[in-house]
Amino acid sequence: MNRTAGSAEQPAVTGTTGGRGLPRFLAVVLALAAFAFSMQFIQGLNSILAPLFLALNLVIVVYPLQRWLVRLRVPAFLAAAVTIVLVLVLIIGFFGLTAWSLAELVLVIPKYSAKIGALYTDALQGLNELGLTPDVLAQQLSGFSVSNLLNTVLSLLSNVSLIATALTTAVMAVFFLGMDSMTLPLRMRLAGRMRPGFTRSLTDFGNGVRRYWIVSTVFGLIVAVLDVIALITIGVPLAFVWGVLAFLTNYIPNIGFVIGLVPPALMAVVSGDWWDALWVVVSYCVLNFVIQSIIQPKFTGESVGVSPFISFLSLLFWYWVLGWLGALLALPATLLVKALLVDADPASRWVNTFIASSPSTGLPAPEPGEGPKRVPGIAGGHRSRTVVDTTFVNEKE
Questions:
Q1: Could you report the per-residue pLDDT of 372-389, keeping only the tens digit for each?
Q2: 224 to each of 20, 111, 216, 370, how far by Cα in Å?
Q3: What angle is formed at CA 233 by the lines to CA 299 and CA 213, rounded to 5 degrees?
Q4: In this predicted model, what pLDDT tens digit does every residue of 46-82 receive, in sequence order?
Q5: Of 11, 246, 281, 299, which has the maximum CB count within 10 A?
Q6: Are 70 and 79 in contact (CB under 8 A)?
Q7: How far are the Cα atoms of 218, 276, 280 from residue 233, in angstroms, in the given order?
Q8: C-alpha to C-alpha distance for 73 and 94, rounded to whole angstroms
Q9: Rg of the chain on CA atoms, in Å
């Protein structure tokens, strides 16, 4: 009798830790430590992982074309070859446009060396008149010269090894991903039978990344064309170079607009006057605000929607982890982490309520065969959320 009573009281003693193993505080600390170690490990391999992830993103974008070709009875290896060639064209175009814009800038900067020096002197005199410690400013800026500015730009071009390594890694990854894509539908169907939630989250990730890159590219082209027209109208040199810069920086969330604005505004001052720079700032602000802040979010939708604060944190974090390519891959990388750690686990989907652009994203989804679930306490009543079947491939290929 005593032994039975003691065994009955045992769960109450162990229940002080919740009956689930480690206490919550210790579990959180260990999880954060493991996450920090993982990020440090990834940071050490950023020169390899960033090009690999870029290649993965581009293959995901082009994959619907491969699936369409297979439906037309095109051999799988030939459809995969078309995907590989198209992705390689995109990669070469990206790096080629970047190299061309930098080369054009290097050729033009020496022509405005006298004007840049005069503007620098005027700026120092203006700061002196404002009483902003001229001695300290002169000491801090004593090393400035046009030649130093040109050398800085040339150093970017001379770092061929870093660019060549990233380009080679991305190209090799494209070949291997292209070969694996031939068996991807079968793999997804087999995995979906055992882990339907996990495969569904990967499918949502693929759809979201694909929509993000396509919408960002289309609206980036629109913004670039309108910016070039505005710059030509104002009379700013290198209008097409600044258009390429505006297109490339459109992929950088939050601060890409500022990065694309500063160089043409400075060129407007050098080649003209301050009024030209003011018109550049006004035109860029109007065009980019209307297109990127009002129109573009309506096309991206909730599949790539994260809150503005999470988007900004993603930019800072992935730039720190993956380097310069991390600025371009910030949102896709965040979507991948979200798919693996949040969307794949039904018990963790509530996190979407705090990080997604739409709070309703975190509502529980109905199980297969059930009607939409009712969640009390939202908007003073009930709110339902239906689930759309997003199986990656549900047809035979």
A1: 454 444 444 444 343 434
A2: 55, 25, 12, 48
A3: 20
A4: 888 899 999 999 999 999 999 999 999 999 899 999 9
A5: 246
A6: yes
A7: 23, 10, 10
A8: 32
A9: 27
Write out the two tokens for 170: 């991305």
What whole-number distance in Å separates Cα of residue 166 and Cα of residue 332?
A: 18
Which single residue is written with the structure tokens 């292209």?
178
| Locus of tokens 């991305």 | 170
Give the predicted TM-score (pTM) of the model.
0.73
